[in-house]
Fold Monothiol glutaredoxin-S11-like.
Amino acid sequence: MDKVMRMSSEKGVVIFTKSSCCLSYAVQVLFQDLGVSPKINEIDKDPECREIEKALLRLGCSKPIPAVFIGGKLVGSTNEVMSMHLSSSLVPLVKPYLC
């Protein structure tokens, strides 16, 4: 879990993804469209992939991938991020991290 916490604080917006996950790609594109350049951690390329997934679930992510952190805090997975975007509560969170 320490590794996940360290990785989630590397940049203002951090997304844990898998390279083959279409939902991960959709979340990445959303943030890029909002003008944010998130740090992308493709965990399927990490030898500790399974441990990272377990840590994300323990932190409270409904699904391990994609997992979005803003300001070092877990926001959630695709459903949470899209709900926040539709309710206009995502942009104020990412405003400090716009490119």
Observations:
- Residues 87 and 95 are 15 Å apart (CA to CA).
